[in-house]
Amino acid sequence: MSSTACRLYRNTTLGNRLQEILLQFDKAINSALAQRVRNRVNFRGSLNMYRFPDNVWTFVLNNVEFREVTELTKVDKVKTVACNSKNTGSITTE
Question: Which of UniProt's keywords are assigned here (predicted)?
Fold first, then answer.
């Protein structure tokens, strides 16, 4: 979708409502994870690519091992996208 079409869509009633719902979902998931999850998982892999455009980190790892206390899970590729949690109240368009 082109950036113009994206902006037009986001400014519609449906686009605005979807952004509100996704923001509420993000807040609920963050709260639930902070209060309910107590397990720790370690992971190790080979860094394939990383970048930091527009204050958003993107990492791609290859041959990744996730290790919990008694379990080991191996996957070929993991992509992680992370942004600053202090900006969760603002919605930007590109």
Answer: Nucleus, Transcription, Transcription regulation
